[in-house]
């Protein structure tokens, strides 16, 4: 008898098949003597749409709500039905004795496989492969210690509970809002609180009133003396008159050294990356969106096989990984990393609790290099950037700490206290990995002893103002989603603890999609790198029931999902609660007297239905879309390009169609696309027809991604994963 292995994606399936010597190609399968390997294309099976329960629900009608199926039905996803039937036929082969689940090792990965097995009515024994990388070595080790599928039954029940809860809440709330206000209004337990955080930040900025503060500095021979209040130890003064009075008192006076302290300090390397930390830093460093970083990581994991599983929320390794570190160092000992890895390979690796802790690893450990040989030439520029970030962070935790001497000299002038601070590097330690060069800051600090007198000091007044909190960008929004405790209205201990343990709003795997959806739904927009809520977003927050705006809902749901996964709570108990909650929010929306107003109407008419078009800002584009949700007409009128302005070097917008396409810059520069191409040719960096075609194809694809159908925003499974 053979074992059927079900992977989540074809690329992973091929990797497993290679290790299991399944070389015979079939229709959607790879077969060997002992194993048959097949795969999903992500989800092949999903929860049925409302009309599958009752045909009248195909029509969006407020009177049909709430929709509360007694038993949820599974349906095969049409686009991937061919592969589903391939998998089903393999499950029911007479020579297949057991099924091995080899989907991603996590809650959603469990759901992918189990739904396929349930829909296909599988009755055969199930085993589970649980691995964090898809190298040959990891796959071999994983197959040598397969688990019984029954060990993951509670995890599966938690995954089903999450999906069904989000279906009834998201589907009903979205239909209720859309029908009530005849506008494409989507909401969900993660995307709506995320939007509320952006609105709250904007309100804080709007209400902020700057406060002026003053400081006093002394300058002499390149040295800076900073005034410090003797009582509060603060270095600012709110009263300008007092600050000026002190300066007048100090003019022409000498300073006396009253104390010198020198302390050797150690600074340890930052922790290894989890996905959110990597997305955050890649956004700050390279302006990559969260989605772009995840896609790049997925390629480095699946295609190049040089990094471990990306969708992890842990920044630690387990003790069993320590023995593999030397092999991973050998794999990365190439190119720019060879000299950095060499000293580590020659000695015993010292693993410590700063990066190895079994208790801080759940499904997957931190993102680190695999033991796979690396060929940097096969990577794209963007892949190299992300790979470099992960490798250097991995090397850094294995290096000793950065050691420096912190020098603090306290001086007194007319009974006023000043401090001179300096720092001298003793050992670069992990900073050598980042090639920061010489860290000897303030090396010019003169040698001083107590009672030394400093003459010729020039004192001056400094002035500053308190600053409002910064608007969100993708990096800071990811941070807020990961840790939304500051946005809780009631900071109950159990909710705070759960949000901390579960990673906040969304998961490492879904946050990127949630951010993209909020852009594509025109609920938020970008101005430069900053993110702002739109008028549509503000109105949505006024229209949705209050609970759906709060992170508390997710915290409470995750607490209960965690209990289901541990076998401490029955799935049906949670579903009974979510059913009652859904009835409440639908009743609230139905009974509301609020109105929705399109305040971005233009004078341009829709060519399909004749109604006025709405002007909206996409993530990287400006569009005109029909106000009628059933019409679905859309038109891109401008898109941010990668072309740089020859005057100010900022990215230019591409507006117009066909031969009239023109690049426009915020500085006022304008240039037709044809002229741009000619100029670039003369500069020796011509834009080829192929590149232009590729760019335009990408633009079209992005546009279609934002508006796939009249109900895309509303219905594309309502982003029910969250």
TrEMBL record:
The protein's annotated catalytic reaction(s) are: ATP-independent breakage of single-stranded DNA, followed by passage and rejoining
Looking at the UniProt record, the site noted as Interaction with DNA sits at 60, 167, 175, 311
Q: Which residues bind Mg(2+)?
A: 8, 104
From the UniProt record, which GO molecular function terms apply? DNA binding; DNA topoisomerase type I (single strand cut, ATP-independent) activity; magnesium ion binding
Listed PROSITE patterns: TOPO_IA_1, TOPO_IA_2, TOPRIM
**EC number in record:** 5.6.2.1
What cofactor does this chain's UniProt record say it requires?
A: Mg(2+)
| Start and end residues of each Toprim domain | 2-135
Q: What does this protein do?
A: Releases the supercoiling and torsional tension of DNA, which is introduced during the DNA replication and transcription, by transiently cleaving and rejoining one strand of the DNA duplex. Introduces a single-strand break via transesterification at a target site in duplex DNA. The scissile phosphodiester is attacked by the catalytic tyrosine of the enzyme, resulting in the formation of a DNA-(5'-phosphotyrosyl)-enzyme intermediate and the expulsion of a 3'-OH DNA strand. The free DNA strand then undergoes passage around the unbroken strand, thus removing DNA supercoils.
**Can you give the residue ranges of the Topo IA-type catalytic domain?**
152-586
Taxonomically, the superkingdom here is Bacteria
Q: Which NCBIfam families match?
A: PRK07726.1, topB
In this protein, the active site sits at 309 (o-(5'-phospho-dna)-tyrosine intermediate)
**One GO BP:** DNA topological change
Q: What is this protein called?
A: DNA topoisomerase 3
Q: Which family does it belong to?
A: Belongs to the type IA topoisomerase family.
Question: EC top class, in one word?
Answer: isomerase
Species, as recorded:
Candidatus Galacturonatibacter soehngenii
Which keywords describe this protein according to UniProt? DNA-binding, Isomerase, Magnesium, Metal-binding, Topoisomerase
SUPFAM superfamilies in the cross-refs: Prokaryotic type I DNA topoisomerase (SSF56712)
Q: Name one GO cellular component term.
A: cytoplasmic replication fork
């Amino acid at each position: 008898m053979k074992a059927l292995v079900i992977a989540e994606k074809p690329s992973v399936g091929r990797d497993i098949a290679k290790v299991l010597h399944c070389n015979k190609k079939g229709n959607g399968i790879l077969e060997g003597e002992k194993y048959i390997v097949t795969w999903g294309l992500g989800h092949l099976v999903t929860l049925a749409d409302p009309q599958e329960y009752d045909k009248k629900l195909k029509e969006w009608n407020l009177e049909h709500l709430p929709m509360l199926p007694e038993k949820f039905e599974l349906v095969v996803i049409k686009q991937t039905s061919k592969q589903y039937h391939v998998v089903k036929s393999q499950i029911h082969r007479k020579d297949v004795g057991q099924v091995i689940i080899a989907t991603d090792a996590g809650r959603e990965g469990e759901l992918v496989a189990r739904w396929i097995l349930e829909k296909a009515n599988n009755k055969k024994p199930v085993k589970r492969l649980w691995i964090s990388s898809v190298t040959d070595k990891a796959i071999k080790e994983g197959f040598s210690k397969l688990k019984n599928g029954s060990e993951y039954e509670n995890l599966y029940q938690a995954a089903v509970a999450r999906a069904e809860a989000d279906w009834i809440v998201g589907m009903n709330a979205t239909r209720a809002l859309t029908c009530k206000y005849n506008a494409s209004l989507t909401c969900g337990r993660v995307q709506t609180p995320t939007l509320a955080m952006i609105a709250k930040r904007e309100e804080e900025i709007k209400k902020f009133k700057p406060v002026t503060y003053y400081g006093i500095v002394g300058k002499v021979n390149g040295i800076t003396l900073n005034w410090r209040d003797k009582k509060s130890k603060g270095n600012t003064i709110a009263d300008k008159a007092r600050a000026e009075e002190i300066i007048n008192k100090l003019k022409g006076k000498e300073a006396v050294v009253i104390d010198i302290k020198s302390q050797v300090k150690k600074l340890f390397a930052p922790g290894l990356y989890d996905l959110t930390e990597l997305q955050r830093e890649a956004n700050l460093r390279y302006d990559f969106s969260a989605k772009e970083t995840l896609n790049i990581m997925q390629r480095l994991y699946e295609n190049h096989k040089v990094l471990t599983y990306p969708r992890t929320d842990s920044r630690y390794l387990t003790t069993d990984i320590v023995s593999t570190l030397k092999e991973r160092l050998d794999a990365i000992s190439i190119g720019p990393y060879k000299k950095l890895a060499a000293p580590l390979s020659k000695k015993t690796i010292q693993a410590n609790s700063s990066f190895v802790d079994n208790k801080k690893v759940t499904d997957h450990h931190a993102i680190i290099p695999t033991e796979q040989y690396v060929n940097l030439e096969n990577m794209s520029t963007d892949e190299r950037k992300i790979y470099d970030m992960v490798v250097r962070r991995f090397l850094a935790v294995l290096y000793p700490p950065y050691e420096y001497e912190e020098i603090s000299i306290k001086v007194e002038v007319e009974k006023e206290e000043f401090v001179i601070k300096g720092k001298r590097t003793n050992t670069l330690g992990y900073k050598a990995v980042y090639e920061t060069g010489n860290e000897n800051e303030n090396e010019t600090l003169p040698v001083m002893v107590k009672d030394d007198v400093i003459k010729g000091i020039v004192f001056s007044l400094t002035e500053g103002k308190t600053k409002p909190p910064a608007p969100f960008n993708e990096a800071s929004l990811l941070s807020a989603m990961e840790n939304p405790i500051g946005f809780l209205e009631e900071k109950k201990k159990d909710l705070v603890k759960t949000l901390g343990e579960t990673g906040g709003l969304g998961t490492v795997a879904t946050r990127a999609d949630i951010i993209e959806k909020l852009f594509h739904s025109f609920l938020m927009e970008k101005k430069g790198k900053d993110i702002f809520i739109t008028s549509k977003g503000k109105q949505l927050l006024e229209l949705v029931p209050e609970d759906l705006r709060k992170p508390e809902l997710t915290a409470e749901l995750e607490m209960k999902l965690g209990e289901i996964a541990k076998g401490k709570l029955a799935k049906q108990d949670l579903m009974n609660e979510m059913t009652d909650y859904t009835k409440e929010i639908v009743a609230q929306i139905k009974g509301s007297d609020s109105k929705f107003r399109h305040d971005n109407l233009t004078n341009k008419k829709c060519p399909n239905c004749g109604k006025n078009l709405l002007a909206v800002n996409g993530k990287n584009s400006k569009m005109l879309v029909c106000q009628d949700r059933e019409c679905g007409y859309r038109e891109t009128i401008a898109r941010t390009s990668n072309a740089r302005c020859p005057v100010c070097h900022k990215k230019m917008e591409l507006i117009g169609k066909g031969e009239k396409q023109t690049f426009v810059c915020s500085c006022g520069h304008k240039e037709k696309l044809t002229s741009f191409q000619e100029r670039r040719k003369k500069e020796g960096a011509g834009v080829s027809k192929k590149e232009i075609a590729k760019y335009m194809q990408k633009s079209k694809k992005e546009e279609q991604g934002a508006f796939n159908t009249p109900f895309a925003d509303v219905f594309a499974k309502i982003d029910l994963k969250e």
